[in-house]
Amino acid sequence: MGAGVLAAVLLVVSTALAIWYTARQDARPPSDAIVVLGSAQYNGVPSSIFEARLEHALALYEQGVAPVIVTVGGKAAGDQFTEAEAGRDYLTAAGVPADALLPVQEGVDTLESMRAVGAAFRERGWGSAVLVTDPWHAMRAERMAEDAGIDAESSPTRQGPAVQTRATQLRYILRETAAYLLYRVTGESVAGAPGIG
């Protein structure tokens, strides 16, 4: 009994440390596309979390990391816009050409969205991506992308509410640890929270 508890504790701690380590990395290899994970939008206007991700993706695009930015995410009941549309429109207004934007308007959580992105990549013969999300979400997003057939690395945003305070960071790491372990055990995702679905 004691050994089982110790093993469980070690698994949780090692996963949390891996999430923390991945959050501190910033990979920007030349890729087929930059994939921006969606977050809340309000009547077509990205939330502060989503805006921080979009601004970071824009910077990567301007640095020549990839020729296309993929915006990702569906819409909740009652919404007029998908997260992918809100992201595309934001980047269009920032000067990104229409042919350099691909909205993938599916998914209510990271897993559904990444599977839809994987299908879009296969249709176009793409294989590699740089993922843009919050630091604490990066490890799980990378895993889900790889499971969807994408050679993925992440360049997390360093701006926005998810990285403002130590308490916020700790809360996100704990939530992501639970979400990552759930995904590895069940193959399912956790919906309903910003950056954790």
From TrEMBL:
<dbReference type="GO" id="GO:0005886">
    <property type="term" value="C:plasma membrane"/>
</dbReference>
<dbReference type="InterPro" id="IPR051599">
    <property type="entry name" value="Cell_Envelope_Assoc"/>
</dbReference>
<protein>
    <submittedName>
        <fullName>DUF218 domain-containing protein</fullName>
    </submittedName>
</protein>
<dbReference type="InterPro" id="IPR003848">
    <property type="entry name" value="DUF218"/>
</dbReference>
<dbReference type="InterPro" id="IPR014729">
    <property type="entry name" value="Rossmann-like_a/b/a_fold"/>
</dbReference>
<feature type="domain" description="DUF218">
    <location>
        <begin position="32"/>
        <end position="178"/>
    </location>
</feature>
<dbReference type="Pfam" id="PF02698">
    <property type="entry name" value="DUF218"/>
</dbReference>
